[in-house]
Amino acid sequence: MFGVAVQAVRMNYYPACPRPDLVLGLSPHSDGSALTFLQQGKGNSVGLQIWKDDTWIPVQPIPNALVINIGNIIEVLTNGRYKSVEHRAVTHKEKDRLSIVTF
């Protein structure tokens, strides 16, 4: 009925960087999928940021928790009632970061 479904899993490793102002881990974007599930590694630095009220807001990692982002498909299906979140990943001066994402 719906055709072929695609599920992807991606691991992103962001090493510590002495000059985080010179690099960007992952450029700003919204996800084309319906939902994105993100597991941030234990003891990771803050690296995920969301765009809200014209500023980048850091998302603090919570141990054993998932971050769930609304994607573009949900925004379209709900006629904009639920918004796809623009986000990015940044590096940290002293800590590395590992994220596992499925979408």
CA-CA gap between termini: 21 Å
**What's the number of extended β-strand segments?**
8
Task: Tell me the domain tally.
Answer: 1
Tally of alpha and pi helices: 1
Can you characterise this structure?
With 103 residues, the chain is mainly beta. It contains 1 helix and 8 strands; from the N terminus they run ββββββαββ. The strands form 2 sheets. It has a 4-stranded antiparallel beta sheet with strand order 1-8-3-6. A 4-stranded antiparallel beta sheet has the order 2-7-4-5, with no helix packed on it. The model has no long low-confidence stretch (mean pLDDT 87). It comes from Phtheirospermum japonicum. InterPro entries: IPNS-like_FE2OG_OXY (IPR044861), IPNS-like_sf (IPR027443), Oxoglu/Fe-dep_dioxygenase_dom (IPR005123), Plant_2OG-oxidoreductases (IPR050295). Keywords: Iron, Metal-binding. Pfam families: 2OG-FeII_Oxy.
What is the compact description of this entry?
By secondary structure, this protein is mostly beta strands. The chain has one helix and eight strands, in the order ββββββαββ. The radius of gyration is 15 Å and the shape is globular.
